[in-house]
Amino acid sequence: MCKHILNSQVSIRAPCCKQWFDCAECHGEAQTHPLAKTTEMAFMCKKCKKAFRKDMTVYEESDEYCPHCDNHYVINAKTPHAVVGVEGEDARVDARMLKDDRIKELNKRSIFAPDDSTGHLG
Fold this sequence. Notes:
Elements: E1 10-13, E2 20-21, H1 24-30, E3 40-45, E4 51-55, E5 84-86, E6 98-100
Antiparallel strand pairs: 1-2, 1-3, 3-4, 5-6
């Protein structure tokens, strides 16, 4: 399961190490070498679990579908991002239904902070 692209429809086979990954970022996290570039890509459909190859030099609109099950694998990627969402029907009734998944920035102040010149005497 890819943590970078939530609706990934195919896995790609890296030509450099011959291993399967959900995306190029997954390859970058798992391997120490860069992803090799090639004109022929090997894919594995996550719907029918069958592998197929595509020549990227002559890529057409009909190549956006799995040749075995016609699964449309070229779709807009859904990437994870922080959101504020409502978990109930109406947030105006009960504000506890608001869910905040954003990362909160902690603003810690210290008297020993060298970059903070406000509040110093003298």
